[in-house]
Write a structure and sequence with these properties.
Two copies of one chain form a homodimer.
Chain A (H helix, E strand, L loop, with lengths): L14 H8 L3 H9 L6 E2 L5 E2 L2 H15 L4 H27 L4
Antiparallel strand pairs in A: 1-2
The first copy, chain A, binds a DNA duplex through helix 2.
Chain lengths: 101, 101
Amino acid sequence: MVPLSSYKDKKVITIGVTSELTGLSERQIRYYEERKLIFPERTKGGTRKYSFRDVERLVEIANKIEDGMQTFEIRREEIKKANIREKMLRGQLNAAFKMRK
Amino acid sequence: MVPLSSYKDKKVITIGVTSELTGLSERQIRYYEERKLIFPERTKGGTRKYSFRDVERLVEIANKIEDGMQTFEIRREEIKKANIREKMLRGQLNAAFKMRK
DNA sequence: CGTGTAAGGAATTCTGACACG
DNA sequence: CGTGTAAGGAATTCTGACACG
């Protein structure tokens, strides 16, 4: 009954619908992918598929760009956050398993 | 932050992806719509869009058909359930507002 | 840099019908 | 009854490029 990955993360939405949901043009959405801010999946035929989480992320990206932030800055910010999360996780794992050093 | 209608109910999935998610053929999915068991939305262009809830419902329908149930029986069953729900709701409203006859 | 657009092609979807049963 | 399929057309999406700036 409970889906393996939440509906929110399942990549099932076409770029057309994603465009409607976000208010962004398809051009913008594809460009943000080019700048490595978003990572849709593809059908066998090559059509892009987005998740609801992607839709949310796109809206956030759009807001930051409106605020004058550039794509590379947004990307850098994301990488930094991911690194912090990774370090914290590593620390917790080390503590839990007493494997430090 | 909280979406008006849950992700589960938003109709955003194409018939191709729905077919993959359910394991049903597009023909089957369209037929169940013809028999009024499922109600996708449409894009301006006429392309069908399904929700995750629709996907779940489709799997249930498929199971019942596998068990030998016919589409009209499944539909009758759904209508009966809806009627029961409607009666219970009406009763609660009447009790709450003291408007019973 | 971020985005619009025209271009040509390919993938996707649509409907109505015939087929089997 | 439920489903497969071929048919022709329309809607959707894709990529690479030119444009503006």
